[in-house]
Write a structure and sequence with these properties.
Blueprint: H1 2-16, H2 29-43, H3 48-82, H4 87-105, E1 109-110, E2 116-117, H5 119-149, H6 157-183, H7 190-223
Antiparallel strand pairs: 1-2
Length: about 220
């Protein structure tokens, strides 16, 4: 998470250094990121060409690694749900996990003005929200663990506060996606559906967290 946060900061800085009339604004995100890395490396004496190549490689590696992790996790989830741990489960899980994005890749996506856009732009906000919800889930787990094993009564808040912030902002983004999809009629019809599912799952996590903390608190009071 710390490394991902650093990558996010570097990405923001790569955009911040662009002038309003810069030609790079119209370029693809990966090229903007690579040019920013090249500019940074040039300041410390490393050739800009090397920095650009390194930035493109890092960006590509990050994307491919994300796709690989998503495919593996999807396969594991399907194996757990079906109970098929043999080769049949692996093949089925991989096919089902890969078939969904492949289907959307071959769909024609348009923005609010009717312009054709890449499929990833349509689902980018939903992906970002789900990614932050996953981080919030990890922090919630750490918060509960710290609450149950704490030596200091306030230490669990170090993980709980950012978890709550991520939880609220991610759900806010998902609610906006639902509003834009079902009320304004923007984007692909699948986006609000996925957003609703994520909101429901996040609410279930919140309820489970509150129940777990309440149960732990009652047990501590009983022991005292």
């Amino acid at each position: 998470m710390l490394l991902e946060g650093m990558v996010a900061v570097v990405s923001i800085v790569c955009v911040m250094i662009l002038a309003k009339d810069s030609e790079l604004i119209t370029k693809a995100p990966n090229f903007i990121y690579a040019m920013g890395i090249g500019s940074f490396m040039e300041l410390i004496g490393i050739p800009a060409a090397f920095g650009i190549s390194f930035g493109l490689m890092a960006f590509t590696t990050f994307v491919y690694d994300t796709l690989d992790v998503c495919t593996r996790l999807g396969r594991y989830v399907i194996e757990e749900l079906t109970g098929w741990r043999d080769m049949k489960g692996k093949v089925l899980g991989t096919v089902l996990t890969s078939a969904v994005p492949i289907f959307f890749i071959f769909q024609t996506m348009t923005d609010a003005k009717g312009n054709v856009i890449p499929a990833w732009k349509t689902f980018w906000n939903t992906f970002g929200a789900s990614n932050q919800l996953l981080a919030a889930l990890a922090l919630i787990g750490i918060s509960i663990w710290l609450y149950n094993t704490r030596r200091n009564s306030k230490v669990w808040m170090a993980a709980c506060i950012p978890a709550v912030l991520m939880f609220l902002m991610s759900n806010w983004a998902l609610l906006l996606s639902i509003y834009e999809g079902w009320v304004l009629g923007l984007g692909h019809p699948a986006v609000p559906v996925v957003s609703v599912i994520l909101v429901i799952l996040s609410v279930l996590v919140a309820v489970e967290t509150i129940y777990s903390v309440s149960k732990s608190k009652a047990q501590i009071q009983k022991e005292q």
